[in-house]
Design a protein that fits this description.
With about 190 residues, this protein is mainly α. The chain contains nine helices and no strands. α1 packs across α2 and α8 runs antiparallel to α9.
C-alpha cells in the first residue's frame, strides 16, 4: 500500500473510531492526515470510500487475522500474535465507539454484513486449525474439540470487547490476554 494512502487510512480510522461517521468532516481527515484535498481524491472517490477502506483495514489489521497468517503456528504464539495485532490500534478507544464504528459500517457499506459473515467463518476455521495442530503436536490436550475451543477463544475476546471497558488495560486487550492465558493454562499439556 502507498504510504500516503496508508497515512490517510490510519488518520481517518483514528477519527472514525473516536467520532461517528457523520462527526468526521473532510476537513478533519485532511488536517489529521496532513495531505491536500487533491491527494485524498487521488486515492478515494469519497469519504464513504475512505470509510470502507478504514473498516477493511481495521478488520484485517486488528480484529480478524488473514487466513494464511497463522495456519501452522503454535497456539501460544498464535494467542500472543493476536494480542499484539489487536492492540496496534487500541489507543484507548472505548467499546461503545467500536460498536458504533461497526454499526455504521453495516449501515454505510452495503455488503458489509455478508463480508463479516465470511470473515467470521474464516476466523473460526483459522482458530480451529491452530487448535487442531496444537492437539496433534502435543501442545494442548484434546479435552475440547478444536472447533469448540476456537469458538471459546473468539467468544472470550468478543465478550470482553463488547462488555468490557476498553478505555483501560491497553484498550481492553489486557483482559482478553488474561482470559486467553487462563484458558490456555487449562488445556496445555
Amino acid at each position: 500500500m502507498n504510504d500516503s494512502k496508508e497515512n490517510i487510512i490510519k488518520s481517518s480510522l483514528s477519527l472514525f473510531l473516536r467520532n461517528s461517521y457523520a462527526g468526521v468532516s473532510m476537513r478533519d481527515i485532511l488536517n489529521k492526515s496532513g495531505l491536500s484535498r487533491g491527494a485524498f481524491y487521488h486515492y478515494f472517490e469519497s469519504k464513504e470510500a475512505c470509510f470502507e477502506e478504514c473498516v477493511k483495514y481495521y478488520i484485517t489489521q486488528v480484529t480478524h487475522p488473514e487466513p494464511t497468517d497463522y495456519t501452522n503456528e503454535r497456539l501460544k504464539a498464535f494467542l500472543e500474535d493476536n494480542i499484539r495485532r489487536m492492540s496496534r490500534i487500541s489507543d484507548n478507544i472505548t467499546a461503545s465507539n467500536k460498536l458504533l464504528f461497526f454499526n455504521e459500517a453495516i449501515k454505510i457499506i452495503p455488503h458489509f454484513a455478508k463480508f463479516m459473515e465470511r470473515r467470521n467463518a474464516e476466523e473460526l476455521a483459522i482458530w480451529a486449525k491452530v487448535a487442531e495442530n496444537a492437539v496433534k503436536s502435543g501442545e494442548i490436550t484434546d479435552c475440547i474439540p478444536p472447533m469448540e475451543l476456537a469458538a471459546m477463544f473468539i467468544s472470550q475476546c468478543d465478550g470482553v470487547m463488547v462488555m468490557g471497558d476498553a478505555t483501560t488495560n491497553n484498550g481492553g486487550y489486557t483482559e482478553v490476554e488474561r482470559q486467553w492465558n487462563n484458558l490456555y493454562s487449562l488445556i496445555k499439556k
